[in-house]
Protein backbone atom coordinates (compact mmCIF):
# COMPACT_ATOMS: atom_id res chain seq x y z
CA UNK A 1 0.00 0.00 0.00
CA UNK A 2 1.27 3.46 -0.82
CA UNK A 3 1.60 6.03 1.93
CA UNK A 4 -1.60 7.83 2.87
CA UNK A 5 -1.96 11.23 4.49
CA UNK A 6 -5.09 13.08 5.35
CA UNK A 7 -6.99 15.42 7.63
CA UNK A 8 -9.65 14.21 10.01
CA UNK A 9 -12.10 16.35 11.93
CA UNK A 10 -13.54 15.24 15.22
CA UNK A 11 -17.02 16.62 15.85
CA UNK A 12 -19.65 16.03 18.46
CA UNK A 13 -21.64 17.87 21.05
CA UNK A 14 -19.82 18.96 24.22
CA UNK A 15 -18.62 16.32 26.64
CA UNK A 16 -18.94 13.26 24.38
CA UNK A 17 -15.17 12.66 24.65
CA UNK A 18 -13.62 14.33 21.62
CA UNK A 19 -10.56 15.59 23.49
CA UNK A 20 -10.08 12.24 25.20
CA UNK A 21 -10.19 10.52 21.81
CA UNK A 22 -7.78 13.00 20.27
CA UNK A 23 -5.34 12.48 23.14
CA UNK A 24 -5.70 8.74 22.91
CA UNK A 25 -5.03 8.82 19.17
CA UNK A 26 -1.95 10.99 19.24
CA UNK A 27 -0.68 9.61 22.53
CA UNK A 28 0.17 12.97 24.02
CA UNK A 29 -1.68 15.61 25.90
CA UNK A 30 -2.22 18.32 23.34
CA UNK A 31 -5.91 18.88 23.76
CA UNK A 32 -7.48 19.74 27.07
CA UNK A 33 -10.18 17.70 28.75
CA UNK A 34 -12.48 18.57 31.55
CA UNK A 35 -15.62 17.25 33.14
CA UNK A 36 -17.14 20.60 32.40
CA UNK A 37 -18.58 20.95 28.94
CA UNK A 38 -17.32 23.44 26.41
CA UNK A 39 -13.63 23.53 27.16
CA UNK A 40 -12.22 23.23 23.66
CA UNK A 41 -12.32 26.46 21.74
CA UNK A 42 -9.36 26.25 19.45
CA UNK A 43 -8.73 23.94 16.59
CA UNK A 44 -5.99 21.57 17.60
CA UNK A 45 -4.05 19.43 15.20
CA UNK A 46 -2.93 16.18 16.71
CA UNK A 47 -0.73 14.11 14.44
CA UNK A 48 -0.30 10.37 14.33
CA UNK A 49 2.21 8.83 11.96
CA UNK A 50 2.25 5.06 11.47
CA UNK A 51 4.29 2.97 9.05
CA UNK A 52 2.04 3.67 6.09
CA UNK A 53 -0.22 6.49 7.19
CA UNK A 54 -0.28 9.98 8.61
CA UNK A 55 -3.45 11.10 10.35
CA UNK A 56 -3.76 14.80 11.04
CA UNK A 57 -6.53 15.39 13.55
CA UNK A 58 -8.49 18.57 13.84
CA UNK A 59 -10.33 18.92 17.11
CA UNK A 60 -13.35 21.16 16.71
CA UNK A 61 -15.13 23.08 19.43
CA UNK A 62 -18.41 21.78 20.77
CA UNK A 63 -21.57 23.34 19.51
CA UNK A 64 -23.02 25.99 21.79
CA UNK A 65 -26.73 26.33 21.55
CA UNK A 66 -27.59 28.08 24.81
CA UNK A 67 -25.75 31.36 24.67
CA UNK A 68 -25.99 33.02 21.31
CA UNK A 69 -23.22 35.58 21.63
CA UNK A 70 -20.34 36.43 19.33
CA UNK A 71 -18.05 33.81 20.80
CA UNK A 72 -20.47 30.99 20.17
CA UNK A 73 -21.35 32.18 16.71
CA UNK A 74 -17.66 32.06 15.87
CA UNK A 75 -17.32 28.61 17.37
CA UNK A 76 -20.15 27.21 15.28
CA UNK A 77 -18.80 28.88 12.18
CA UNK A 78 -15.42 27.33 12.82
CA UNK A 79 -17.02 23.85 12.97
CA UNK A 80 -18.65 24.31 9.58
CA UNK A 81 -15.42 25.57 8.07
CA UNK A 82 -13.41 22.70 9.46
CA UNK A 83 -15.75 20.06 8.09
CA UNK A 84 -15.67 21.23 4.51
CA UNK A 85 -11.90 21.15 4.67
CA UNK A 86 -11.01 17.60 5.75
CA UNK A 87 -10.86 14.11 4.22
CA UNK A 88 -12.78 12.26 6.90
CA UNK A 89 -15.19 13.39 9.59
CA UNK A 90 -15.32 11.50 12.88
CA UNK A 91 -18.69 12.20 14.45
CA UNK A 92 -18.48 11.24 18.11
CA UNK A 93 -21.57 10.41 20.14
CA UNK A 94 -22.14 8.67 23.47
CA UNK A 95 -23.27 5.05 23.48
CA UNK A 96 -27.04 4.82 23.56
CA UNK A 97 -27.56 8.55 23.25
CA UNK A 98 -28.82 10.52 20.27
CA UNK A 99 -30.45 13.82 21.08
CA UNK A 100 -31.22 17.25 19.69
CA UNK A 101 -27.50 18.14 19.83
CA UNK A 102 -26.77 15.33 17.41
CA UNK A 103 -29.67 16.35 15.15
CA UNK A 104 -28.17 19.82 14.97
CA UNK A 105 -24.74 18.51 14.02
CA UNK A 106 -26.16 16.37 11.24
CA UNK A 107 -27.29 19.58 9.56
CA UNK A 108 -23.68 20.72 9.07
CA UNK A 109 -22.19 17.38 8.02
CA UNK A 110 -20.70 17.59 4.52
CA UNK A 111 -22.40 15.27 2.04
CA UNK A 112 -19.27 14.88 -0.08
CA UNK A 113 -17.06 13.58 2.75
CA UNK A 114 -17.11 10.21 4.47
CA UNK A 115 -18.54 10.53 7.97
CA UNK A 116 -17.62 7.81 10.45
CA UNK A 117 -19.91 7.49 13.42
CA UNK A 118 -17.82 6.89 16.52
CA UNK A 119 -19.89 5.51 19.38
CA UNK A 120 -17.83 6.40 22.45
CA UNK A 121 -18.05 5.39 26.11
CA UNK A 122 -19.19 1.83 25.32
CA UNK A 123 -17.53 0.87 28.62
CA UNK A 124 -20.38 2.67 30.36
CA UNK A 125 -23.09 0.65 28.62
CA UNK A 126 -24.55 -1.60 31.26
CA UNK A 127 -26.39 -3.91 28.89
CA UNK A 128 -23.94 -4.79 26.12
CA UNK A 129 -26.78 -6.43 24.20
CA UNK A 130 -28.08 -2.93 23.51
CA UNK A 131 -25.09 -2.00 21.37
CA UNK A 132 -25.95 -3.87 18.19
CA UNK A 133 -29.57 -2.63 17.98
CA UNK A 134 -28.30 0.90 18.68
CA UNK A 135 -25.78 0.61 15.84
CA UNK A 136 -28.51 -0.62 13.53
CA UNK A 137 -30.70 2.32 14.46
CA UNK A 138 -27.84 4.71 13.80
CA UNK A 139 -27.25 3.20 10.36
CA UNK A 140 -30.81 4.22 9.48
CA UNK A 141 -30.33 7.75 10.82
CA UNK A 142 -27.68 8.91 8.37
CA UNK A 143 -25.59 7.37 5.55
CA UNK A 144 -22.47 6.91 7.70
CA UNK A 145 -19.46 5.47 5.89
CA UNK A 146 -18.94 3.24 8.93
CA UNK A 147 -20.02 2.90 12.55
CA UNK A 148 -17.31 2.09 15.08
CA UNK A 149 -17.93 1.54 18.80
CA UNK A 150 -15.04 2.60 21.05
CA UNK A 151 -14.02 3.61 24.53
CA UNK A 152 -11.66 6.55 24.17
CA UNK A 153 -10.86 6.34 27.86
CA UNK A 154 -10.02 2.64 27.89
CA UNK A 155 -8.60 2.51 24.40
CA UNK A 156 -11.04 -0.13 23.16
CA UNK A 157 -11.85 -0.09 19.45
CA UNK A 158 -9.38 2.70 18.72
CA UNK A 159 -7.14 0.58 16.48
CA UNK A 160 -10.16 -0.54 14.50
CA UNK A 161 -11.23 3.08 14.15
CA UNK A 162 -7.83 4.01 12.75
CA UNK A 163 -7.95 1.12 10.31
CA UNK A 164 -11.33 2.17 8.99
CA UNK A 165 -10.32 5.84 8.83
CA UNK A 166 -7.09 5.04 6.98
CA UNK A 167 -9.10 3.48 4.18
CA UNK A 168 -10.65 6.89 3.50
CA UNK A 169 -7.44 8.90 3.35
CA UNK A 170 -5.90 9.85 0.01
CA UNK A 171 -2.56 8.48 -1.12
CA UNK A 172 -0.07 11.24 -0.35
CA UNK A 173 3.33 11.70 1.31
CA UNK A 174 3.40 12.85 4.97
CA UNK A 175 2.98 16.56 5.66
CA UNK A 176 4.69 16.58 9.07
CA UNK A 177 7.81 14.97 10.54
CA UNK A 178 7.03 11.68 12.22
CA UNK A 179 7.96 13.12 15.62
CA UNK A 180 5.61 16.06 15.51
CA UNK A 181 2.83 15.79 18.03
CA UNK A 182 1.22 19.06 17.20
CA UNK A 183 1.81 21.98 14.88
CA UNK A 184 0.63 24.39 17.53
CA UNK A 185 3.31 26.46 19.14
CA UNK A 186 4.41 25.96 22.72
CA UNK A 187 2.93 29.35 23.42
CA UNK A 188 -0.49 28.08 22.44
CA UNK A 189 -0.05 24.87 24.42
CA UNK A 190 0.96 26.87 27.49
CA UNK A 191 -2.30 28.81 27.25
CA UNK A 192 -4.26 25.56 26.90
CA UNK A 193 -2.59 24.04 29.99
CA UNK A 194 -3.41 27.09 32.09
CA UNK A 195 -6.95 27.19 30.77
CA UNK A 196 -7.49 23.57 31.69
CA UNK A 197 -6.37 24.24 35.27
CA UNK A 198 -8.73 27.20 35.52
CA UNK A 199 -11.62 24.98 34.41
CA UNK A 200 -10.69 22.25 36.83
CA UNK A 201 -10.05 24.46 39.85
CA UNK A 202 -12.98 26.81 39.45
CA UNK A 203 -15.59 24.14 38.75
CA UNK A 204 -19.10 25.51 39.02
CA UNK A 205 -17.79 28.93 39.99
CA UNK A 206 -16.16 29.37 36.61
CA UNK A 207 -17.19 32.73 35.25
CA UNK A 208 -18.69 32.67 31.79
CA UNK A 209 -16.23 34.33 29.45
CA UNK A 210 -12.77 33.54 30.68
CA UNK A 211 -9.67 33.36 28.52
CA UNK A 212 -5.93 33.13 28.74
CA UNK A 213 -3.47 35.37 26.97
CA UNK A 214 0.24 34.57 26.90
CA UNK A 215 1.87 37.98 27.06
CA UNK A 216 5.47 36.87 27.07
CA UNK A 217 7.12 33.58 26.23
CA UNK A 218 10.91 33.47 26.40
CA UNK A 219 13.30 30.60 26.31
CA UNK A 220 16.72 30.68 27.98
CA UNK A 221 18.43 27.35 27.49
CA UNK A 222 16.05 24.82 28.93
CA UNK A 223 14.12 27.36 31.01
CA UNK A 224 10.93 28.91 29.70
CA UNK A 225 9.72 32.20 31.18
CA UNK A 226 6.01 32.65 30.65
CA UNK A 227 3.83 35.64 31.55
CA UNK A 228 0.15 34.80 31.31
CA UNK A 229 -2.92 36.96 31.81
CA UNK A 230 -6.23 35.43 32.78
CA UNK A 231 -8.90 37.56 31.12
CA UNK A 232 -12.26 37.86 32.82
CA UNK A 233 -15.38 39.70 31.77
CA UNK A 234 -16.29 41.38 35.06
CA UNK A 235 -14.45 42.96 37.97
CA UNK A 236 -16.34 40.65 40.35
CA UNK A 237 -14.87 37.60 38.64
CA UNK A 238 -11.34 38.69 39.37
CA UNK A 239 -11.68 37.81 43.05
CA UNK A 240 -13.14 34.41 42.24
CA UNK A 241 -10.11 33.50 40.16
CA UNK A 242 -7.56 34.89 42.61
CA UNK A 243 -9.21 33.37 45.68
CA UNK A 244 -8.63 34.18 49.33
CA UNK A 245 -5.13 35.63 49.79
CA UNK A 246 -4.35 34.63 46.21
CA UNK A 247 -4.33 30.96 47.16
CA UNK A 248 -6.45 29.78 44.29
CA UNK A 249 -4.53 31.43 41.48
CA UNK A 250 -1.34 30.19 43.10
CA UNK A 251 -2.60 26.62 43.07
CA UNK A 252 -3.82 26.92 39.47
CA UNK A 253 -0.45 28.33 38.38
CA UNK A 254 1.51 25.63 40.16
CA UNK A 255 -0.60 22.88 38.56
CA UNK A 256 -0.25 24.45 35.13
CA UNK A 257 3.50 24.92 35.55
CA UNK A 258 3.97 21.24 36.39
CA UNK A 259 2.06 20.16 33.28
CA UNK A 260 4.06 22.56 31.12
CA UNK A 261 7.36 21.27 32.50
CA UNK A 262 6.33 17.75 31.67
CA UNK A 263 5.17 18.60 28.16
CA UNK A 264 8.11 20.84 27.25
CA UNK A 265 10.69 18.68 29.01
CA UNK A 266 12.32 21.58 30.85
CA UNK A 267 11.89 24.03 33.70
CA UNK A 268 9.13 26.63 33.52
CA UNK A 269 8.89 29.93 35.35
CA UNK A 270 5.26 30.98 35.18
CA UNK A 271 3.80 34.30 36.25
CA UNK A 272 0.04 34.76 36.11
CA UNK A 273 -2.22 37.71 36.76
CA UNK A 274 -5.88 38.54 36.22
CA UNK A 275 -7.03 41.22 33.82
CA UNK A 276 -10.59 42.55 33.41
CA UNK A 277 -11.76 43.19 29.84
CA UNK A 278 -15.44 44.00 29.98
CA UNK A 279 -17.62 42.40 27.35
CA UNK A 280 -14.82 40.52 25.66
CA UNK A 281 -16.98 37.48 24.96
CA UNK A 282 -19.30 39.70 22.94
CA UNK A 283 -16.67 41.48 20.93
CA UNK A 284 -15.44 39.74 17.80
CA UNK A 285 -12.46 42.07 17.56
CA UNK A 286 -11.20 41.21 21.01
CA UNK A 287 -11.78 37.53 20.28
CA UNK A 288 -9.61 37.71 17.20
CA UNK A 289 -6.83 39.39 19.17
CA UNK A 290 -6.98 36.48 21.62
CA UNK A 291 -6.49 34.01 18.81
CA UNK A 292 -10.04 32.74 18.31
CA UNK A 293 -10.71 32.12 14.67
N1 LIG B 1 -16.56 6.21 30.80
C1 LIG B 1 -15.97 6.92 29.83
N2 LIG B 1 -15.80 8.24 29.97
C2 LIG B 1 -15.20 8.93 28.96
C3 LIG B 1 -14.79 8.29 27.76
N3 LIG B 1 -14.27 9.23 26.94
C4 LIG B 1 -14.36 10.41 27.61
N4 LIG B 1 -14.92 10.25 28.82
C5 LIG B 1 -15.16 11.30 29.85
O1 LIG B 1 -16.10 12.24 29.36
C6 LIG B 1 -15.81 13.57 29.83
C7 LIG B 1 -15.72 14.53 28.65
O2 LIG B 1 -14.59 14.20 27.84
P1 LIG B 1 -13.88 15.26 26.90
O3 LIG B 1 -12.86 14.51 26.13
O4 LIG B 1 -13.44 16.47 27.67
O5 LIG B 1 -15.11 15.67 25.97
P2 LIG B 1 -15.17 16.71 24.76
O6 LIG B 1 -16.15 16.16 23.79
O7 LIG B 1 -13.82 17.02 24.26
O8 LIG B 1 -15.81 17.97 25.47
P3 LIG B 1 -15.79 19.55 25.03
O9 LIG B 1 -14.37 19.98 25.06
O10 LIG B 1 -16.61 20.18 26.09
O11 LIG B 1 -16.41 19.63 23.68
C8 LIG B 1 -14.52 13.45 30.62
O12 LIG B 1 -14.85 13.38 31.98
C9 LIG B 1 -13.91 12.13 30.14
O13 LIG B 1 -13.11 11.53 31.11
C10 LIG B 1 -14.99 6.86 27.65
O14 LIG B 1 -14.65 6.19 26.66
N5 LIG B 1 -15.59 6.24 28.71
From TrEMBL:
GO terms for biological process: ribosomal small subunit assembly. Keywords: Cell membrane, Cytoplasm, GTP-binding, Membrane, Nucleotide-binding, Ribosome biogenesis, RNA-binding, rRNA-binding. InterPro entries: G_ERA_dom (IPR030388), GTP-bd (IPR006073), GTPase_Era-like (IPR005662), KH_dom-like_a/b (IPR015946), KH_dom_type_2 (IPR004044), KH_sf_prok-type (IPR009019), P-loop_NTPase (IPR027417), Small_GTP-bd (IPR005225). GO terms for molecular function: GTP binding; GTPase activity; ribosomal small subunit binding; small ribosomal subunit rRNA binding. The keyword Cell membrane applies. This is GTPase Era. Residues 150-152 are annotated as: G5. Residues 59-62 are annotated as: G3. Residues 12-19 are annotated as: G1.
Amino acid sequence: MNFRTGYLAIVGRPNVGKSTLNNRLVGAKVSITSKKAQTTRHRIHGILTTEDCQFIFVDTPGFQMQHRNALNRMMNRSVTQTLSDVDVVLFVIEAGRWGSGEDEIVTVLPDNRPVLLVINKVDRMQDKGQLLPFMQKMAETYPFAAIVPISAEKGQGVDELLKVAAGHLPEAPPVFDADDITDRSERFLAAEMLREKLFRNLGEELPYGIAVEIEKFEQEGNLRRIHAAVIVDKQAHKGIVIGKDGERLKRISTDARKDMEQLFGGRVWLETWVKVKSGWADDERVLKSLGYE
